Amino acid sequence: MTLQVADDSRVRTLTLDRPEALNAFNEELYDATAEALLAAAVDPAVAVVLLTGAGRAFSAGTDLLEMHRMATDPDFVRGQHGFTGLIDALVDFPKPLVVAVNGLGLGIGATILGFADLGFISTEARLKCPFTSLGVAPEAASSYLFPALVGRQNAAWALLSAEWISAEEAHRMGLVRAVCTPDELLPTARRHAEILAARPISSLVAVKRTMTEPHRDAIRAARDRENAAFAELMGGPANLEALAAFAEGRAPDFTSLPPGW
């Protein structure tokens, strides 16, 4: 199993559980997480979902070795939901989503905070949106959600630079509600989740809907723009150089790419 599911006090905890791969999302984990969100959305016994990771990472993002196979192997079999299906499930998730970032968060491990109703982060965690270092485009509607959450300048730095963002900087930006010590992260996130879960589910859903409904069309439009740009760039010279460098354990060299790349 790549995802652990546990219920307590109307809070469903989803734990990404590929610690040997730093909880990187392969197609199996994308499918499992999407299915879990879809199930929680319609389960009358679930009021809140709490998402976290097992081991020292929250999520290292998309599994780059599998991404390389997707870009180069025409026979690669994709999952039922995949990345796009997970994003759709996040966009449509009607109940509060609490995210506890316990360790490294790269790619979707960082941009998923755009969908968090409450975010908490460990002092030992760091975030990175590595898109330009991979020669690809933003994802998960982060090109819309991040500027809305943290402002244009902070969002531009996060999405353009591919530099690490500390827990304290993430809090200062407004990506998370609080920074916690590692021992206090899950208890703090759970305490907040249980406060919400004690409220009427119908009211929680109504509050979230009234907050998110004005943004749904813009989020979907951003996702579509990003997916188109990502598809255009994936498998291109910059992306292939980045993936080859990752597989070979070296830093990518973009200086010898064709003009315009």
UniProtKB/TrEMBL annotation:
Q: Which Gene3D superfamilies match?
A: 2-enoyl-CoA Hydratase, Chain A, domain 1
SUPFAM superfamilies of this UniProt entry? Answer: ClpP/crotonase
Q: Where in the cell is it found?
A: Peroxisome
Which InterPro entries is this protein grouped with?
ClpP/crotonase-like_dom_sf, ECH/Chromodomain_protein, Enoyl-CoA_hydra/iso
Q: Which Pfam families match?
A: ECH_1 (PF00378)
Keywords, A to Z, come to:
Isomerase, Peroxisome
> Where is it mainly found?
other
Q: Which protein, by its recorded name, is this?
A: Enoyl-CoA hydratase/isomerase family protein
What species was this sequence derived from? Nocardioides ginsengisoli
